[in-house]
Amino acid sequence: MIVGLTGGIGSGKTTIANLFEQEFSIDIVDADIVAREVVEPGTPGLLAIHSHFGNDILTPQGTLNRTKLRECIFSKPEEKQWINDLLHPLIRQRIDLLLSQTTSPYALLVVPLLIENGWHKTIDRLLVIDVSPETQVKRTCQRDQVSEKQVRAILTAQASREERLALADDVINNDSALNQQRKQQLLSQITELHKKYLALTQPFL
Fold first, then answer.
1. Is 12 annotated as a binding residue?
2. Is 10 annotated as a binding residue?
3. Residues 58 and 157 in one domain
């Protein structure tokens, strides 16, 4: 059984996914990590990007210059589309492979843009990490050292809070700061969800 885990920027997806892994040894496939893997040196993804954009797209160490790539596609929709057409199938292929190799009773597929990219149609259950837009802005500004304007632009490009909640099978509210008391509350919620997911895995065994 595949449980999709998603939430907007700054919602705490990684924190909660890690708790599932640490407490219950649940296998995690993280789309952000896969997206980096498919453009590592020597991969078909990076070779194609290098061929398309030229030497400027690489750092002196031969890795992808992400800042330069953002500049190349920021104001050119056709270049952004080219990148998406190249990378999305590679990411999907790698994720399918990793999911096929999981051994825990169910697997967590962590995808930031799960709803936006239609992944919710391919999973068995959707867990949404829900926070207010105000919390998202505050956390992301602190974490990434970016302006509020930038964060709000990202929020506009993502599915709305209402859209995510409308599709959710399960919801964890993660608005509060992660102190020891809050961590215990999260663990209690995660434990209940784990029990539920174990019961739901029976038809898959």
1. yes
2. yes
3. no
Do the annotations mark residue 14 as ligand-binding?
Answer: yes
Same domain, 142 and 75: no
- Residue 11 annotated as binding site: yes
pTM of the complete model: 0.87
Which residues sit opposite 115 in a β-bridge? none
Tell me: is residue 15 an annotated ligand-binding position.
yes
Question: Which has the closest alpha carbon to 19: 185, 187, 181?
Answer: 187
- Do 95 and 113 fall into the same domain? no
The sign of the torsion formed by the CA atoms of 101, 102, 106, 112 equals negative
191 is an annotated ligand-binding site residue: no
| Cα gap 109→111, rounded to integer Å | 6
Range of the domain at 52: 34-103
Instruction: Answer yes or no: do 15 and 112 share one domain.
Output: yes
Per-residue pLDDT of the chain (205 residues; tens, 9 = 90+): 999 999 999 999 999 999 999 999 999 999 999 999 999 999 999 999 999 999 999 999 999 998 899 888 877 889 989 999 999 999 999 999 999 999 999 999 999 999 998 889 999 999 999 999 999 999 989 888 888 998 888 888 889 999 999 999 999 999 887 788 888 999 999 999 999 999 999 877 6
In a domain, 203, yes or no: no
150 within domain boundaries: yes
The enclosing H or E element of 144 equals helix 133-144
